[in-house]
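Researcher: Go.
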Amino acid sequence: MKPRYKRLALISVGVVGLTVSGLFVLNAFQSNLVFFFSPTEIYSGKAPVDKEFRIGGLVEKGSVKKSADGLTVDFIVTDNNKSVTVHYRGVLPDLFREGQGIVAQGKLRDHRFLAREVLAKHDENYMPPEAAKALEGSAYKKP
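Model: Structure:
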């Protein structure tokens, strides 16, 4: 085989290898991509069913119901327009409380959000940007 064809074969193998590895990276990125939705967007049908996403808003006062085992919690997240019931099994963050801004990650099933993870804001003035945007235009006033 001539050196010219060897070089062409080597370049072709390199291009194919880079293309395949790039496709693997893009596939991994797309499968780990998680979108954010407010309760109003969920009710309008924008949120996917049986696919993981994040929901954010305020924990409605008087809505937190803990089970006897202490690990299962049901509460309502609101953006002051619409509300969604959240079911979570696990240890809640120390800063979790009623009236608090939270972001939960999980799936929507049977008109309930089954959370896999719950995150609470870390100080009195912080709110996740997604949750703050979702609450824009509502009666909520930032502290």
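Model: The radius of gyration is 22 Å.
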